[in-house]
Amino acid sequence: MRRLSLRLRLALLGAIATIVALGLAAWALTGLFALHVERRAVAEMELQLEQVLAGLTLQPDNQLGISSPPTDPRFHRPYGGLYWQLAAADNVLRSRSLWDGSLDIPVSSVPQAEAQIHRIKGPDGAELLAVSRSVTLPPSLNGGMVTASVAMDSGEFVAARNAFAKDLAPYLALLTITLLGAQLAQLIFGLRPLRAIGQRIAALRAGETDRMGDEWPNEVQPLASEIDELLKMREADIERARFRAADLAHGLKTPLQALLGEAGRLRERDETASANSIEEIASAMQAHVERELVRSRVSIQAKNKSANVKKVVDQIVSVLHRTPRGAELEWVIDVPTGLQAVIDPADMAEALGALAENALHHARGEVRIDAVEHDRQIRLSVADDGPGVPDHQLKTIVERGKRLDETGTGTGIGLAIAHDIAAAVGGRIELANRPAGFVAVLVLPVLGTVAKLQ
């Protein structure tokens, strides 16, 4: 299963965190607003409670009465949502809003200095928030204990809280969009160095640079430095291997020359079969040595150079045209100027020279060399009008893992070396028969491939 990208993962986590945080903030703000509204309502009801107690008077029938009840119109409208009540031992006074109901307030037998808050059921079944206080009446009001209460419908608090939440919602939505946009911008600019790392590594692979450099942010610089150290160690290892291969090759040259000399002496004594056998073995060993020398040279420098394709082709054709066999052939060249391949010019000359020499040996009358740029690659074709290669042997040649010099098709060590050189720079050799002969295509990366991809 494919994992989520780092950018998408951070975006999802950030979006979830932002939404959850703003949701909690909305819940907390709404709760704080409701608490604030309730406190204001309690303070208002305490003031109205003081008005009820201050308005107590003794009526002509020696009963308690209210001379100046609170003036809020909700007290005078039946079930208006705001109620007051005064409960004495033998008498209960209530607001008109209570109609024939009453507030179920616990009556205390002890005077209360502070108002008490209750949550009770109202006369119409609604939830009420009530404030009550029990006080002792003075002798002028016949003494005794009374409990004064003021209550308000809790639905008003809920309505106020809902209205606040409704008003808050658009601003929270705008804040959410702003935060998500800021987060997206942070991801785009914050993760840009990671994309730049990928581009720089691609440039390393294409040979357009040889190090990551030290211009990275502090968080990324350790990674770039480790890559540079790894490249440095790899180059040192390859250099040592190249020297060892060169030493081995030079060490084998003298024994090989001695074998060839011994074969010559055998031939002088008319021991032709033995001489041929020794020369064949020595030639094969020499070909392998030359191939390994080419490999060791190309592996260290192939991707750090560039070659002008037109110039290399002209040099190869100029040399081959001076040979007796080359002078007999017609050379048709169609290579645009300005094509630059990611390869050392000497290596390209060796690879192309092998393909051109193969065409020279098998052509009947014409060799055609042309080059085109396609899909960020240079396709350099060398075609001849010779007999070609049997199809079953051609498939063996191009099969991955086969050594081209061991297929028995007559292509020899030259094509094997050309294959190794092309592979070292990320290219390849394509071989195919055609109606008019045989064609070998040298595929090489174009210089500036990474820049084009960006």
UniProtKB/TrEMBL annotation:
Residue ranges crossing the lipid bilayer per the database entry: 171-191
SUPFAM superfamilies per UniProt: ATPase domain of HSP90 chaperone/DNA topoisomerase II/histidine kinase
One Pfam family linked to the record: HATPase_c
Molecular-function GO terms, alphabetical: phosphorelay sensor kinase activity
Domain Histidine kinase: 247-448
E.C. number(s) listed in UniProt: 2.7.13.3
PROSITE patterns: HIS_KIN
Xref: Gene3D superfamilies: 1.10.287.130, Histidine kinase-like ATPase, C-terminal domain (3.30.565.10)
One GO cellular component term: plasma membrane
Reactions catalysed according to its record: ATP + protein L-histidine = ADP + protein N-phospho-L-histidine
Compartments (UniProt record): Membrane
Keywords, ordered alphabetically: Kinase, Membrane, Phosphoprotein, Transferase, Transmembrane, Transmembrane helix
SMART domains listed in its UniProt record: HATPase_c (SM00387)
Protein name: histidine kinase
Native source species: Nitratireductor aestuarii
Lineage, opening ranks: Bacteria, Pseudomonadati, Pseudomonadota, Alphaproteobacteria, Hyphomicrobiales
